[in-house]
Amino acid sequence: MSQALQSIREAAVDGRAKNIIWRQVQLENLQLALIDSAATIQAAIQQDSACTATEAAIEYFLTLKCLNENYESLDVQQALKDEYAITRGQNAECFKDPVGVVYIVPTTYNYFYSVVSATGAAVTAGNCVVIELQETLRQRRVSELLRELLKLALDHTVIEFTSTRASDEDLSPNHIRLFQEIPDTETRTSFSKSLFPLLSFTRTAAIVDRTADLTSAAEAIATARFAYGGNSPYAPDFVLVNEFVKGPFLRALMQASMDQLSLRMKIDEKFPSSRNIHQTASLIASEIQSKRAINISSIGEGILVDVNSRESQLLRSKIRGHNILLHNVRSLDDAIDLASQNGELLATYTFADPASGKYVSQFIPSRVSFVNQIPFEILVGPPSPETSSLTSSFHVRYTTDLFSIPRPQYILKTPLSQQIQQCLSVEDNRSTAAWQSALISQLSKQITATRQKRRPGGQLGFFEQGILLGLGMTGVPILLCVGTLAYYGLGFVWRNFRLH
Hints:
Layout: H1 6-14, H2 20-36, H3 38-49, H4 53-72, H5 76-83, E1 96-98, E2 101-105, H6 111-124, E3 128-132, H7 140-153, E4 159-162, E5 175-179, H8 185-190, E6 194-195, E7 204-208, H9 214-226, E8 238-242, H10 246-270, H11 278-289, E9 293-299, E10 302-307, E11 324-329, H12 332-340, E12 347-351, H13 354-363, E13 369-371, E14 404-406, H14 415-424, H15 429-453, H16 462-499
Parallel strand pairs: 2-3, 2-5, 3-4, 5-6, 7-8, 7-12, 8-11, 10-11, 12-13
Antiparallel strand pairs: 1-14, 9-10
């Protein structure tokens, strides 16, 4: 058993981090420490990640925003009400306890955001934190800063670092492990109390319909693929574009890609890239050699690729770096079938009119769907855990609920419990029959009232609109022809009648 983590185990058993005032103080100290070191932090992020100054500033800002939202969620008065609700004869349905110890195994992508945002959520929930900081050259400066700032800002008894994988015995009996990257199969099966990234939801797709604003779609896709070296798990891995607009969209995409490339040329010269894109580059080269893909253009370190075979592994793989993969589709249904053929997606971005966007979002199984946008904040940080989903706050990956255990407390009887208790206390079957009859009568009235309010029929759906459009395109010309023939035919008959 590790002696270095003994203070963490003792603090978790004592419940030292449960006090809400203590949690507020910890988050206040952490925010002030990060604000005081703003310039140093952003410079370290920029150097370690080879990103632009703007991208480093955005990562830093979103990290502070997560911490501030965690801090504002701590309501002292409400916490006291929940704690003593039972003594006042009230229920405490939302009462929760912390897990105990949260063990964080961070990802190297957006390292600063990933570590601090998870730490903030864990502390907000009242947990002690152990962070596995591996000594790597890629994140050396940020790693050193994190160790220094977190130790300085947080109580030393509830935050600890380790460079090797801690065992279950090293942690308290009540703990949970947060893996921010997909671990190997052995790791997934070794620890039962763990939160993993979405193993089966790893790929993302962008769909460009003929009704889309092609320029806006191209700019959004290029920005997502170039941001943070093209390593975001939420960057689109492949783009399915309608074949009728592929030409103009390709021109818009090449222009948008060159604009993004020019923004990053100076930063790449100042901070040589350390992106792990060799596997993607090797796969693209292999598919081009096998004639399943065509190299359209080189864009910096990446390639704009036209995937001309649906058997290509490129449509089934996670793409890294400044590489953009295109594949043409015949229709929205064709895009839906192709995007869904290998399971559910991490995210779907549809560029089309609202009705088409709704149709695609409804029929493509995806953890989250966006129409006519790729929010930049979703590109920051690791994928959400498999037991959680994104909310409207796209920058938040970890909520306090992930690191809490529900402990609802009840003292008030529900009306249904009272009714059942009343029936159980009376041996007369007639009382039970009367109660049952009253309940059935009430339900029947509710159903009847709902049926009376419901309007007959419904709105036209996607397929109904298509049918009516088809009927209109074929029916209107026929009606015009019939009308024209009838007009001239009746005129001819009338003239002959007058002559005779």
